[in-house]
Design brief:
The structure is a homotetramer of 80-residue chains.
Chain A (H helix, E strand, L loop, with lengths): L1 H78 L1
Chain lengths: 80, 80, 80, 80
């Protein structure tokens, strides 16, 4: 009886341990997936910001060129 | 002896189960943290995109106004 | 005879004077016309320059607004 | 007496003719000057309009480039 009881306790513990380890594996897979998604999201974000920085530089040069055009018009008006 | 052996096996299983459950808790905490960071990152990204969409609309209106100015200059040149 | 000669000289002078005065009138009319055209041309030119000065001010404000938009984009990129 | 009177009339006519011809020369000089000024003014105006047409073309290209920049921003926002 005592031996049966021990065996029953051991079986219960073994099942619980299997459940817990199975849950661990699931959680680790979810963590890995989430980490990959976060990393991928950060790469996309960095690429996006690089593209925006290029756009900002392009906008700067367009504003500079419009200002040159404006100065040419102002000189034409002064000189005429 | 057999009883001691059973007890020893039970203790080993109990320790392994405690370790595994402790690891589970750590992983669940990490998952929660990562999910919060991903959600927060998505909110920031959505806010950023909203701001950029506002900028795009503003840029549209500036291009429209420069085009009106260009048309006024063209009409002045035709009419003069 | 001498009287006839005098009369002939007087007639010649009178005709020359009439021609000269007629030419004067024509020249004065041409001058008046040219002065009117020059004045009209200067008014048109002044109106044209006024319109261009308005365009220059409008261009200034558009460049200013594009620069504000550029600064907003730069701040978004710094803050994100 | 009659001869004196004739001579006096001839002198008067001669003086009037000299005045009129002198006036003619003055008017012709004024006309030439005005024509030169009008022609010079038209050349300046044509040069001015040519410069403005160049500015208009430059403005067109700047508006085109801003529109390309705007389209790039719109695509970034759609794709992100």
């Amino acid at each position: 009886e005592s031996a049966n009881e021990f065996q029953s306790q051991k079986d219960t513990l073994t099942l619980k341990l299997q459940d817990s380890e199975s849950r661990n594996e699931t959680l680790e897979a979810q963590l890995s997936d989430l980490e990959r998604r976060l990393e991928s999201s950060q790469h996309e974000r960095e690429d996006f910001r690089k593209s925006l920085r290029s756009l900002l530089e392009l906008l700067d040069s367009k504003i500079f060129e419009l200002t040159e055009l404006r100065d040419t018009l102002a000189k034409l008006l002064e000189g005429s």
